[in-house]
Amino acid sequence: MIQIKRGFTLLELLIAISIIALLAAATFTMYDSAKIKSRDSKRTVDMAQIQQGLNLYFTDHSLFPIFPGGVTIDGTDAFSTLLVEGGYMSGVPTDPSPLYSYTYTSNSSGTNYELSFCVEGDSLSGYNQGCDNTISP
To answer: Using a CB cutoff of 8 Å and minimum separation of 24, what contacts does 62-65 make?
Structure first.
């Protein structure tokens, strides 16, 4: 009588586990890259929204909000409160990552400003990876 052995050899199991691990690593890498691109895209949209609110403020006051020392935008700061309570924005967006923040700085006369923000990836044309990205009127 012939006996048939059922099961897998150790080598077959190791190969299968290795293939699964490689596929999982590739999936996690692609997922992380997609999250970074999504956050960076949101940042550019947020900057456009803040600029729109600032333009509305400028239309009414003929100057931009004056914060020469700069302010970190967290939604509850004086800059955000000024734009929301003035009806220029329903809410001031904040950076999608808790590791970074937006900042607003104006000159002392309110004729110019600078919005600063970070970019995590290198997929946005016209912006550099890092926190040295700025937008002015």
So the answer is: 63/109, 63/110, 63/111, 64/106, 64/110, 64/111, 64/112, 64/113, 64/137, 65/104, 65/106, 65/110, 65/113
